[in-house]
Amino acid sequence: MTATTIDGKAFAATLRAQVTTHVAVLKADHDIVPGLAVVLVGEDPASEVYVRNKAKQAGECGIRSFETRLDAATSQAELLAVVQRLNADPAVHGILVQLPLPAHIDANAVLGAIDPTKDVDGFHISNVGQLSVGQKSMVPCTPLGCLLLLRQFHKGGLAGSHAVIVGRSNIVGKPMAQLLLREHCTVTIAHSRTRDLPSIIGGADILVAAIGRQEMVRGDWIKPGATVIDVGINRVTRDGRTRLVGDVNFAEAAEVAGAITPVPGGVGPMTIACLLLNTVTACCRAHHLPEPAGLAELGL
Ligand SMILES: Nc1nc2c(c(=O)[nH]1)N[C@@H](CN(C=O)c1ccc(C(=O)N[C@@H](CCC(=O)O)C(=O)O)cc1)CN2
């Protein structure tokens, strides 16, 4: 069997087109322009790329973007002051502090200082709690992107499917589990200390790999016909060339799975598209206006 390759880049482009349409309506009917503030501390090269792409794609959708770049030596108090300023700015509907932060800064303190209604990353504890009890919330971008791909590409519907999530991070693994539970999947969260990972993965109709280890999941671990969502982004250098690979061995898995996301071009582009969707959603909620399809469609 050769799996369908899920084109996350194309799906993200469609989502961004929907966001662009909604932004245009907000401007034409209400003279409102959604605003997204992105804060980067330090000079991590990958974060630089992500922040640049966020600002560029926001602009292309008609979202006003506000970028704050801070020195790696910025104190936690200085960063908190920036967050407070953005919380108070009515032109800013979404705030994102790019992770990882330098080690001397307590990320939880910073994420907890963001106004939950502007928390387009969905990392504030009140959004985490609301998602876990099934209330309307802001939803973390990567798991939201994975869910939208699964709703589109997993054959046979999500309800009743056994989903195995490998990875228990607050950014991906845990919120992904909440989202799939809401879709009536049977959810197993596995992680680095799970015993006999291959046999757990072998029972999965849906596999979400978010463990951060290059090509760790082998093709013969995967149930024939399963849908595989690879969240991993690992930079590897082979024969003097650097390239990106996921947490799943793509070539092997594609021989067994029903559908699979590639790396790059799978989940990554969905992360930024969902950030833009969350920003417009936050703007609409702030102004008590109809939200774009997306979170509302998912009942979130
Ligand atoms: N505050 C946040 N920080 C981080 C998040 C997040 O959701 N919020 N997620 C990741 C990084 N990330 C977004 O910030 C992100 C990662 C990857 C991509 C992406 O488009 N990847 C491409 C490949 C890009 C490349 O060449 O490196 C792909 O997979 O096709 C977008 C966003 C950690 N931090």
From TrEMBL:
Q: Which reaction does it catalyse?
A: (6R)-5,10-methylene-5,6,7,8-tetrahydrofolate + NADP(+) = (6R)-5,10-methenyltetrahydrofolate + NADPH; (6R)-5,10-methenyltetrahydrofolate + H2O = (6R)-10-formyltetrahydrofolate + H(+)
| Record flagged with keyword Endoplasmic reticulum | no
Q: What Gene Ontology cellular-component terms does the record carry? A: cytosol
Its keywords, alphabetically, are: Amino-acid biosynthesis, Histidine biosynthesis, Hydrolase, Methionine biosynthesis, Multifunctional enzyme, NADP, One-carbon metabolism, Oxidoreductase, Purine biosynthesis
Q: Which GO terms describe its molecular function?
A: methenyltetrahydrofolate cyclohydrolase activity; methylenetetrahydrofolate dehydrogenase (NADP+) activity
Where on this chain does NADP(+) bind?
G167, R168, S169, I233
The transmembrane segments are none
Q: What gene codes for this chain? A: folD
Q: Name one GO biological process term.
A: purine nucleotide biosynthetic process
EC number(s) given by UniProt: 1.5.1.5, 3.5.4.9
Family membership noted in the UniProt record: Belongs to the tetrahydrofolate dehydrogenase/cyclohydrolase family.
Pathway linked to the protein: One-carbon metabolism; tetrahydrofolate interconversion
User: Which parts of the sequence belong to the Tetrahydrofolate dehydrogenase/cyclohydrolase NAD(P)-binding domain?
Assistant: 140-285
What this chain does, per the record?
A: Catalyzes the oxidation of 5,10-methylenetetrahydrofolate to 5,10-methenyltetrahydrofolate and then the hydrolysis of 5,10-methenyltetrahydrofolate to 10-formyltetrahydrofolate.
Q: Which residues form a coiled coil?
A: none
The name of this protein is Bifunctional protein FolD
- Give the record's subunit note: Homodimer.
Which superkingdom does the taxonomy of this entry point to? Bacteria
| Pfam families tied to this protein | THF_DHG_CYH, THF_DHG_CYH_C
List each copy of the Tetrahydrofolate dehydrogenase/cyclohydrolase catalytic domain by range.
Answer: 6-121
